[in-house]
Design a protein that fits this description.
The protein is α+β, with helices and mostly antiparallel strands. The protein has a single domain, classed as Glutaredoxin, CATH 3.40.30. It contains four helices and six strands; from the N terminus they run E-E-E-H-E-H-H-E-E-H. A four-stranded mixed β-sheet has the order 4-3-5-6, with helices on both faces. The protein has a two-stranded antiparallel sheet with strand order 1-2. Strand 1 and strand 2 form a beta hairpin. InterPro entries: Glutathione_peroxidase, GPX_AS, GPX_CS, Thioredoxin-like_sf, Thioredoxin_domain.
Length: about 160
Amino acid sequence: MSVYEYHAKTIMGEEKSLQEYEGKVLVIVNTASKCGFTPQYKELQALYDEFKDQGLEILGFPCNQFAGQEPGNEEEIQEFCQLNYGVTFPMFAKVDVKGDHAHPLFTYLTREAPGILGSKAIKWNFTKFLVNKQGAVVSRHSPQTSPKDMKKEIEAQLAQ
């Protein structure tokens, strides 16, 4: 199994196979517009700007499961991200990342890279998963981890 087995709807409503990202290093992150970690969009965009030409893709998945911090619809979310943070990396439609209705991609990610003490559940917005060029999950980073703190790990994956 790999992330390439999954499909997701883009923020524009188009069904997209993650197979399209084969051979790229991915950072997959659940996002929210009204969260204390929302400024991480700026750091994620900076990583994307720095490394996209070397094969990095950042995939943002809005989620409203944590204190209702992503209440908007897809159009509102996209506008917020572009106006406030200049986001140009791929954004997807709002998904659940935990529970009975979790998107299958996030069920896979959390199974492959459990959190602290083996917990599979995503605890909050801006949990980040690093995926290698073969589609395997390399690591999981907590919401408190600054995206810029992932830079060395991203560079190592890009070099492989």
